[in-house]
Structure prediction request, 192 residues.
Amino acid sequence: MFRSLNTPALWAVTLSAAGILMVTMGARQSLGLFLAPLNTSTGLGIASISLAMAVGQFMWGAVQPIAGAVADRYGPGRVLQGGLLLLALGSAVTPFMNSTWGLVFSLGLLSAVGSGAGSFSVLIGAATTRLPAESRGAASGVINAGGSFGQFIFAPILQKLIQTIGWMGALWALAAMTLAALPLIRVVSRPL
Prediction:
């Protein structure tokens, strides 16, 4: 299966796309860990926090085809960069939100739109257009696995960060981890 990814350049594009998806999916799927600390700290209640996360679920799905279309028109680099910056901003400002609408803005809009713009549609499209036809299937599988790995690895990391530096520090660390993925965009979006 991996014989078709037979050069370092093909692996670089594939693993960079998988790395970005690892971050966006890991961040998105780990937000549930912040439910109890947000409730305890803000006193907003489970219903308000759940509303923000529900809006986020909707926005994540709704933005993906739009982000894919924008990436086709203007290039994936700008879309991925904007997505990672929005995801980082949403994570960074969430600790400052003390209302339902503030959480809807930070978690439901900024974080969700950011993770949607850096999701499957843009990353697999960006990578596969830079790969030969015989490498696209294997690359898509590896990129998809990056998203699953992000869900697997981010939950315990963020849980440990919540326990050691608190939920606010964990969200700021999540923002920093998201920004650390920005250099991978150049590898995914440049022509081979």
